[in-house]
Amino acid sequence: MEMLNSVSAGAGLILIGAGLGIAKIGAAAVESMARQPEKAADIRGAMIVAAALIEGAAFFALIVCLAKG
To answer: What residues contact 32, with CB distance under 8 A and at least 6 apart?
Structure first.
């Protein structure tokens, strides 16, 4: 039972961290697009790539965390 609690805590921390990281990227991208509307397409593309990398790392960490438990 103790192992299940640590796995749950680890999974929760992983998902919270990924959510905060993607939210920060989104906020920075929207602010950048507001400052330079002509570069919106480039900024949007970079934002999507960065968010996908964070999401992939979060899924990998979640799988490792669940496999350990």
So the answer is: 39, 43
DSSP letter at 5? H
Structural domains of the chain, with CATH: 2-68 (1.20.20.10)
The structure's pTM equals 0.83
Answer yes or no: are the C-beta atoms of 5 and 41 closer than 8 Å: no
DSSP letter string, 7-69: HHHHHHHHHHHHHHHHHHHHHHHHHHHHH-GGGHHHHHHHHHHHHHHHHHHHHHHHHHHHHH-
pLDDT digits (tens, 9 = 90+) for 34-66: 999 999 999 999 999 999 999 999 999 989 888
